Hints:
Elements (H helix, E strand, L loop, with lengths): L3 E8 L8 H8 L2 E8 L3 H14 L6 E5 L4 H11 L3 E5 L9 H8 L4 E4 L2 H10 L6 E3 L20 E5 L11 H9 L6 E5 L5 H4 L5 E3 L7 H8 L3 E4 L8 H8 L3 E5 L5 H7 L4 E2 L3 H12 L3 H17 L2 H17 L10
Parallel strand pairs: 1-2, 1-3, 3-4, 4-5, 5-6, 7-8, 7-10, 8-9, 10-11, 11-12
Amino acid sequence: MNRLKIAYFVGLGGPHPAHSSFVKALREVGDVDVVRTANSPTEIMHSFVRLFTNRVSRYELLICDGFGSLIPAWLTKKTMVARKLIFITTSPAFLYHARVFRHIMKDIDGVIATSTLMSSVLRKLFCYEGPVTLCYPVVDISDFLKIKPLLSARRICFMGKLTWLKGADLLPEIVKEIRKEMKDVEVYVIGSGELMDKINKVDGIRTFGYVPHGEKLLMLLSKCSIYIHPARFEAFGASVIEAMAAGLIPIVTVTTGARDFVKKVNPKLVVPLNPKVIAGRIIEILTLNPNELCELSSRARKEALKWTEERAKKHFIHCIKSIISGDRLAFTRAS
């Protein structure tokens, strides 16, 4: 594949840290302009006009990282006659704008899904018939590998924004169910958001607000044995991989993209979106003997370590080449 002129469309904040390997991979095969775009209709048009007026040459490949930058990327393809437009499923935002997304889909030449959950949504919910490849984000787990979890502790951890979509509102019910059998169980909630008031004063839950990466975060995780992620919908879930790298035993819902990693630790750790079922699985794990806990912890860490940046970069380029060439036989899962 000859070096390409590539535009990588992303929101104003830039690429998600877990997607930085995608940009690095593209720079190995082409000349990449990172185009930051805004979210409101007026700002989207301003971003497009700036891009159009500053354009030096036609782009051969447009990569759109998330729905927020999809409209200007689509407009760029329509007006600049770019060869290909590839969409990366960064978040479920396109679900809230289904009509717009369905209209644009016919001009998307291929999709790079960040989990099997996202590829299933595109196929089954949107009936997308174009090529869909799978390439997981790469999470920086270097600090989390330093942690030695306290597997004997009846402490559970949750990390993330306290939102309905992440299932933060389910945490009080989950704790209540567990405490019917295990009175001493605690849940550490690390994060901030709109549901803080709902869970802040619940017995068995300790809230710490937003804790940046650093010694305090590592200390909190080291006191826990289990990580739960009761998301209603999570495109991937970097915090799940971070917790696995720390050696915590993950329990996630079937609607969490990182389930692809968790099921390799043990399929039983992927559970339905049901507080009672989640609580039951946590109780089941907490009653395992030390050797069984240690084995699950070790497997979790090993799975987190397998998906390296070099492996991701290589596979990401494979996905790009597959879409550009139209080789449908190459549309495979992340290897």
